[in-house]
Design goal:
4 helices, 3-stranded mixed β-sheet, alpha+beta, about 100 residues
């Protein structure tokens, strides 16, 4: 979550970059940078960004699993053997 107290101008960030980099590492929260008073950029540590991507991937995977389970519950699924045959044919794999 972005801390709305952590909003700074790009100019201020440039002037005090070492201070802000240290703060980002300690707080592990992103910093919003403004240009002409409007939010334009978000600065985050590489580790924090990677963690955000990992969580997004997990959430997307869970959503796809839920969608598949809902489809199966509605009778829209196909047997594994038929799905496997379709995939093998599509991708050119043999047993």
């Amino acid at each position: 979550m972005i801390d709305l107290t952590e909003i700074r101008s790009v100019t201020e960030f440039q002037r005090n970059i070492k201070t802000y980099v240290g703060r980002l590492k300690r707080s592990k929260t992103p910093l919003v940078l403004t240009v002409n008073g409007r939010a334009e950029l978000v600065v985050h540590t590489a580790a924090g960004y990677q963690e955000m991507l990992r969580r997004l991937d997990a959430a997307e995977t869970a959503a796809k699993i839920r969608t598949g389970m809902d489809q199966f519950a509605r009778g829209e699924g196909i047997p594994l053997s038929r799905a496997e045959a379709k995939l093998r044919k599509k991708h050119g794999f043999s047993r």
